[in-house]
Amino acid sequence: MSDRTTHRLSGTAVLVTGVGGRLGAELVRAFEARGARVTGVGRADFDLGGRELVLEAMERVRPKTIVHAAAWTAVDACEDDPDTAYRINTLGTRNVCEAADAISARVVFVSTDHVFSGERTEPYDEFQEPDPRSVYGRSKLWGERFVQRLGPRHVIVRTSRLFGGAARNYVVSVLERARALAPGEPFVAVSDQLAIPTFVPELASTVAEITEKAGGGIYHLTSSGKPCSWAELARRTIALAGLAVPVREIFSRESPRLAHRPPFGVLMSRVAVLEGIAPLSPWEEALAGYVKTLGAPAPEAKRGRA
Ligand SMILES: NC(=O)c1ccc[n+]([C@@H]2O[C@H](COP(=O)([O-])OP(=O)(O)OC[C@H]3O[C@@H](n4cnc5c(N)ncnc54)[C@H](OP(=O)(O)O)[C@@H]3O)[C@@H](O)[C@H]2O)c1
Prior knowledge:
Layout: E1 13-17, H1 24-33, E2 37-41, H2 51-61, E3 65-68, H3 75-80, H4 82-102, E4 106-112, H5 135-150, E5 155-159, E6 162-163, H6 170-180, E7 187-190, E8 194-195, E9 198-199, H7 200-213, E10 217-220, H8 230-240, E11 247-250, E12 264-265, H9 270-274, H10 283-293
Helix pairs in contact: 1-7, 2-4, 4-5, 6-8
The protein binds NADP nicotinamide-adenine-dinucleotide phosphate (NAP).
């Protein structure tokens, strides 16, 4: 338990958007652990795309810091429906920034490795120029630009491949799908899209630390450890759960998707390190601890276990 008296966020009013998502609930916990008075809001509270709704809600709560984690994260759906993607991810973020400006609040915006094409072979630090190749990536990049133009003392945290926490994520769905396979049937996953998986509770806690201590601007934050593919993440997850399910690796072109994914969406955390923020632990360790917490499968699904 942290000592609230030592935290500059102690007593500060913080509003977190996207509270029903993978990251939002953990952000609430992380800011509360630093003594902040946190209000979490989801789509049921107000639609981010409704400018007046956002302005009114922020005026009512009057937070000192807005941690804006809500987004339309369905990458293929964004490609199929750019209007909705730009309405929520870009104009929604503009609305949040405009509201923040009106009440003199700080904006902490969560963004993504999809702002990069992923066509380099070296990790992307914060000083690389973004070059998104999907509607989702462009909608988030333009969200970042509104934050940079309208949000005083803003923080932008780009991250990748969230797992952990209470909400559904890739690790949970790997286990569900692997347990449902017939004996000997392989789990199929893509081997040519690399990124660093990121453990959500640690990410949330570091976002709170950065908000409290660091200077502002863009931060790349992922777990530490080696870049890995979806297939590698699935293989480790399945092994950690003690399941005897083989993983069949395929190339992205064998399973075409509507939206482009960065083949090398590997983020390098240069700025946080320069500012003395402790790196997150290796994703391999975090995954081992997390899979343990997911517990045993339902009895009828146990036949796939080793
Ligand atoms: N997931 C990843 O691997 C990943 C990787 C890199 C960056 N990110 C970024 O990290 C942030 C958090 O991602 P996440 O995985 O936690 O997202 P998520 O699980 O998809 O949750 C997104 C949240 O946004 C809310 N939302 C969506 N449209 C909204 C609208 N029109 N008005 C108000 N709220 C709306 C959703 O509300 P409902 O629950 O009511 O639908 C949901 O709670 C996002 O900004 C995302 O771009 C995520």
